[in-house]
Write a structure and sequence with these properties.
Layout lengths: L1 H21 L22 E7 L13 H13 L3 E4 L12 H16 L4 E4 L3 H4 L8 H11 L6 E5 L2 E5 L28 H13 L5 E5 L15 H11 L5 E6 L5 E2 L21 E5 L13 E8 L2 E8 L2 H4 L2
Parallel strand pairs: 1-2, 2-3, 5-6, 6-7, 7-9
Antiparallel strand pairs: 1-10, 4-5, 8-9, 10-11
Helix pairs in contact: 3-5
């Protein structure tokens, strides 16, 4: 009897430990209508695709041909899954829920044609109203239409951990509060201290992973500092990320272009991850169909995980194949 009691106690103790360790970022699910990823044949070798910012130029416009071409390529490439960096719809209209529902239905229908799991880190067009302020109504519509429990979370695949951040949370009064912004300016994104706490716990719990990949909408290091993340978030995240040598890449969107802040050219090929002592690499990929920045081009990224190494390729999408 005592042996049985000890066994029960040990089981409960181990369960409690696992709960504490696993209770960081909530489990992140693929978008509604896209499948769960199949387990990797080899946990040290797999491929995934990153893209984002496909929202139409105007609210009344349909999704363009660029995003359709990208998901056609995804179907042909057959990656393990897809990470999307937000602004999947035009959005920004909490007063028109039927319109928002229709926009999500259109995008999710396109995403389903890729045949792969799609994980989305929401952008300001999903989360904000027309004044660029985070909207509780837009959040509720996002969760209901995409089948998500939270607008942020994490999942493990193979030898790696993948963390999605919501970079458009409501800010307390101060420099990042949308109501305090001068007229005609756009509010910066904001990540709450609660989400930052969950992020740190998740990073601490996954030091054994070969790689951690973080994807979000607002850039930490982008082409321009305006209209990105709140400066206090940037400072805190940069300091935090340097403490985790297995944090390999931080990928964002928002700027409608490809941008590589590492190196002198800033637009060169993505750096290959070969040395775990390096700080994380930052990339911007916002070329899935939204109106392009001056130096932008339509594209997506292919990540190849090879044990402790990661290779990234930029795949341009020709405008003649993906024009609206």
């Amino acid at each position: 009897m005592k042996r049985f009691a000890r066994s029960i106690f040990l089981s409960l103790f181990l369960f409690a430990i696992k709960t504490l360790v696993a209770g960081q970022m909530p489990d992140f699910k693929p978008l509604k209508g896209t499948p769960s990823p199949s387990p990797p044949k080899d946990p040290d070798h797999f491929v995934f695709i990153v893209a984002g910012d496909n929202r139409p130029a105007a609210e009344q416009d349909p999704q363009g041909a660029v995003v359709r071409k990208i998901f056609d390529d995804i179907r042909k490439e057959g990656p393990a899954f897809v990470l999307w960096s937000g602004d999947a719809i035009y959005g920004k209209n909490p007063g028109a829920p039927k319109r928002i529902d229709a926009e999500y239905k259109e995008f999710l229908g396109i995403a389903a044609t890729g045949g792969a799991a799609v994980y989305n880190a929401p952008g300001n067009h999903e989360m904000d109203d027309h004044k660029n302020c985070p909207s509780g109504t837009m959040l509720k519509l996002y969760l209901a239409d995409t089948g998500q429990d939270k607008p942020y979370g994490a999942f493990t695949y193979g030898n790696s951990r993948f963390i999605a951040m919501n970079s458009d949370e409501g800010s307390p009064p101060g420099e990042c509060d949308c109501s305090s912004q001068p007229s005609g300016t756009k509010s910066p994104g904001f990540i709450s201290q609660n989400q930052m706490r969950l992020l740190k716990q998740d990073l601490d719990a996954n030091k054994d992973k070969a790689h951690i990949f973080i994807f979000m909408h607002r850039p930490i290091e982008g082409y321009k500092s305006e209209d990105q993340l709140c400066a206090q978030n940037v400072t805190e995240l940069q300091a935090l990320f340097k403490r985790y040598p297995n944090l390999s890449y931080v990928v964002a969107g928002h700027e409608h272009m490809y941008f590589n802040p590492q190196g002198p050219k800033k637009f060169g090929p993505p750096p290959e991850r070969t040395d775990p002592s390096q700080p994380p690499y930052y990339l911007v990929s916002g070329g899935a169909g939204a109106p392009l920045k001056k130096k932008g081009f339509y594209h997506y990224l292919i990540f190849t995980v090879d044990g402790n190494k990661v290779r990234v390729q930029v795949i341009p999408v020709e405008e003649k194949d993906g024009s609206k």
